[in-house]
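pasting Release factor glutamine methyltransferase for the record, 284 residues
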Amino acid sequence: MPSIGEALQWASERLAGGESPKLDARVMLQYVLACDTAYLLTWPERQLSPQQWQQYQTWLNQREQGEPVAYIVGEREFWSLSLSVSPATLIPRPDTEVLVELCLKKAKNHADTKIVDLGTGSGAIALALASELPLAQISASELREDALALAQHNAQKLGLEQVCFKQGSWFAPFMGERFDFILSNPPYIDTEDPHLVQGDVRFEPSSALTAEQHGLADIQEIIQQAPDYLKPGGWLMFEHGYDQKQAVQACLLAAGYSEVFTEQDYAGLDRVSGGRYVSNGERD
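structre below
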């Protein structure tokens, strides 16, 4: 059987040409061995067992076929939380943490803050906020039953069961409710975008990725419906494509939102936009 160091070298060479061969090789081996990076670095001469070696080869074959590492190992970290993931949901990405940061900054730890996450998927946004705002009222909607079950599993696993998950499309489960913050990472990729046949997104659910009208259909629907579910002066904030800033800001302004803004992600790309909604009567 190969040693840890030999297995990592072999896997990195097999994955050469990918975006992150060494990182992928390391992450998969950590899960096979149930260890951390420090262990791999400290004990490179330790041999894998036959079962570990077989598992590692199987996972490497899956990765060579393009399957995302997160789906292979069944987990992805988001906001320092270890989330279970599956092909039923998008893989949580660091860029979405910008949306969490903005909400936390504006909520200012108010215990009575009421927040909803639309289309929660694995529950990443709602659970990240729950971990920081234990007294807030946090709800989340999800249309797909298998994705909703995964989000509920993550809440239980992380001990964040105060989040109220409901099945339904966008606002449908929350008739008559009002929120201080409405958040979402909706589908925003154009159905004809060539990137859909490249990389990890090939394996992610298209219903969570793409939207009609050049990727803006779901965003426009949320913008139009949100005023009926926002408290006076409440915030709507959502993730969008790097090239959609002008279009989404125009939609927000046309719908009567104020203090419209766009925030960049960690790569310096426009990623999150939003605004406050104050009715004409409240303005007067």
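The radius of gyration is 21 Å.
The mean pLDDT is 89.
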